[in-house]
TrEMBL record:
Belongs to the NhaD Na(+)/H(+) (TC 2.A.62) antiporter family. The keyword Transferase does not apply. It comes from Ramlibacter albus. It is found in: Membrane. The chain crosses the membrane at residues 36-58, 65-82, 102-127, 139-159, 179-196, 217-235, 247-264, 276-294, 300-325, 332-354, 374-394. It is a multi-pass membrane protein. This is Citrate transporter. Residues 27-324 form the Citrate transporter-like domain. Keywords: Antiport, Ion transport, Membrane, Sodium, Sodium transport, Transmembrane, Transmembrane helix, Transport. GO terms for cellular component: membrane. InterPro entries: Cit_transptr-like_dom, NhaD-like. The keyword Lyase does not apply.
Length: 413
């Protein structure tokens, strides 16, 4: 049927992840090795056959993979610092006692994700939910936490790697900011549904535990780590964007901050083995996607952009965004919304989802995620419709030439 065999192998890998959610790591690694062997024996890597092609691909992707690994592991420890600070124990006195408490928690996650890495925002949201709902969090609410973290970063050039890529390529931050028209509509819809869903499953804690002692030192550690990540991201994007291509700078910054503060408040190092398994799973899927022979996208249109949101639920949104920038002709607010938010529809569709499922393994079921988090997909479509109705499709033809000469930054999802 004209479908490259690479894509068939990738589709079978994703199907295996969906069907055998208790063995996702083994399935992802098997798929990655199978695709690599097929391309070594019968295909090529971006036009270069054999081991030289594979070596070239790894040389191109190692920064992305190292950044992902550093962020996933580092933010797992950060979320534990945050939960052990006991600040979350004060939230029952601040949030409403009914379903609206869950609603406002999701709004908080979306807001902090506008200036914070979406992995960190999702992990902080998961830590807060763990306390507020006594460890019983509905899968649909987990999907909503991931969706809120991704939606919050969709309209900010420092909130998501895809939007940062657009900024570097010459897209105005104002054009990216337009994505919030869709993101706000989506968040309002799925947050109401998910909060009611969670309230029926496990009501929110009504009162804070007595004599809460907030560990201000751990909060300071959390702040230091986050400031290190944000400052590194913004400084390098403004001053030395090529450095993001050459080194996993943001992941390094997180770990330098973690190690520098370890003598003050020691992280829970025992969390790393579990987080490492989830991280390797995501890295394997990223490598599978990187080996796909995608050289062009369909002609730019609002329908194509809508479809890219669904594709990003199973395909790394970094190469999708890079291809769109090279091709040109997109409305960048629409694209930022689609590729930034679309990955929320499946648990492994974004790094935030994988990170959160390291905390909540029950989320590693595509069937349960889609069944419980159906409101995320509906919210995505409603948000996209809002963009069309409020702003209309207004493609920008001028970014294409600039983007060809711009480097693609390392992934910091």
């Amino acid at each position: 049927m004209g479908v490259p065999f690479d894509f068939i192998l990738f589709a079978l890998t994703l199907l295996g992840v969906a069907l055998f959610h208790h063995h996702t790591l083994q399935v992802a690694l098997t798929g990655m090795v199978t695709i690599a062997l097929y391309k070594l024996l019968l295909g090529d890597f971006g036009g270069v056959p054999g081991l030289p092609g594979l070596a070239g691909l790894l040389a191109h992707e190692w920064v992305t993979l190292a950044n992902l690994l550093g962020l996933l592991l580092g933010f797992a420890l950060l979320a534990d610092h945050f939960e052990r600070s006991h600040l979350t124990d004060l939230l029952p006195d601040v949030l409403p006692d009914d379903w609206k408490g869950g609603f406002w928690l999701l709004v908080i996650v979306a807001v902090i994700s506008s200036f914070l890495d979406n992995i960190a925002a999702a992990m902080l949201g998961g830590a807060m939910a763990h306390v507020l709902y006594r460890g019983r969090v509905h899968v649909g609410y987990l999907a909503a936490i991931v969706a809120a973290s991704n939606a919050g970063g969709a309209g900010s050039v420092v909130g998501d790697t895809t939007t940062t890529m657009m900024w570097i390529a010459g897209v105005s931050p104002v054009q990216v900011f337009e994505a919030y028209v869709g993101a706000i509509v989506a968040v309002l819809f799925f947050s109401v549904v998910a909060a009611r869903q969670q309230h029926a499953y496990q009501p929110i804690m009504k009162d804070s535990p007595k004599q809460v002692n907030v560990d201000h030192a751990r909060l300071a550690v959390v702040a230091i780590i986050l400031v290190a990540a944000i400052a590194t991201n913004v400084f390098l994007n403004l001053r030395h964007p090529q450095a993001l291509n050459d080194w996993p700078a943001i992941g390094i910054a997180v770990w330098v901050a973690l190690l520098a503060t370890a003598g003050w408040r020691s992280p829970t190092w025992s969390l790393l083995p579990g987080a490492l398994r989830g991280s390797i799973f995501l890295l394997a899927l990223v490598m599978c996607a990187a080996m796909m022979p995608v050289k062009a996208l369909p002609a730019a249109s609002w329908a194509t952009t809508l479809g890219l949101g669904f594709v990003s639920a199973v395909f790394d949104n970094i190469p999708l965004t890079a291809l769109a920038l090279r091709q040109g002709g997109y409305d960048w607010g629409f694209l930022a919304y689609a590729v930034g938010f679309g990955g929320s529809m499946i648990w492994f569709g974004s790094s935030a989802g994988v990170a959160l499922c390291n905390m909540y393994p029950e989320g590693r079921s595509v069937v349960a995620w889609v069944r419980g988090g159906w409101h995320v997909a509906v919210g995505y479509v409603l948000g996209f419709a809002a963009l069309l109705l409020v702003l209309g499709w207004a493609p920008d033809e001028h970014v294409q030439s600039r983007s060809k000469s711009q480097p693609v930054p390392a992934k910091s999802p």
